[in-house]
Protein: Aliphatic sulfonates import ATP-binding protein SsuB
Organism: Glycomyces algeriensis
Amino acid sequence: MATHAGGLTATTAAVRISGLHRSFTDDRPVLSGLDLTIEPGEFVALLGRSGSGKSTLLRALAGLDQDASGTGDIEVPEQVSVVFQDSRLLPWQRVLRNVVIGLNGPNAKARGREALAEVGLAGRERAWPRELSGGEQQRVALARSLVREPQLLLADEPFGALDALTRIKMHGLLRALYERHKPAVLLVTHDVDEAIVLADRVLVLDSGHVRTERRVDLDGPRDPSDPRFAEVRTELLAALGLAGGAEIKKEEEA
Ligand SMILES: Nc1ncnc2c1ncn2[C@@H]1O[C@H](COP(=O)(O)OP(=O)(O)OP(=O)(O)O)[C@@H](O)[C@H]1O
């Protein structure tokens, strides 16, 4: 376990956060006393209004929040991978090199090839990133994350820039990869349905802490047209201040 701040006793949880405060300016804290535990192998989605601090929390977990000041204890596993909305591939390196960069061990390339095959990109090892579509680039980013066998995968709007159809395909892929590798996952998303399709537990961040927590216990492939799915969606929309979807409609009309 790696501890970013303060001291905590050893834990079997993948993530343990207590009393996390983060701010960028003196007047308004972004995170104020946030507590969160994620179990090993648990898939958690994080929703919240724009500016509620979702990325700030994810960056704190990734140890990438040098811009922020704050206090609190964070415990994460040794092996953490992060995926962002943009693939962040090195344009001057071919696909396979992007996947294995920094990876140690004699069989790094073989592992990289295997990871590319897992995301459906076998045969594209020697392509340049610019030759791939946005969805394919995100597949490479997933391969690069998973080849490191992370105990924790942090994903910040990983499908946010993709079209609706590609997004749906990527949901299936991410869920399949998750089932195979079973890292703990924290997925930041704006998309309520994406959260319900993918996660075991959905959190809503509001006013600096986790306000709402909803376990998703729908069996089998999750179908957005299922009334039980709709029930969860309504609850989460209400937690986001969008009860019944009425305010969404209003926003669309405006
Ligand atoms: N590097 C920074 N410097 C100054 N303020 C920042 C910085 N990063 C984030 N903030 C501020 O912190 C608040 C939370 O930002 P954050 O990006 O965590 O929100 P978010 O919930 O991820 O938003 P979105 O859904 O729009 O991506 C915002 O008010 C933002 O302006």
Residues 6-10, 246-254 have pLDDT under 50 and may be disordered. The chain is about 35% helix and 25% strand.
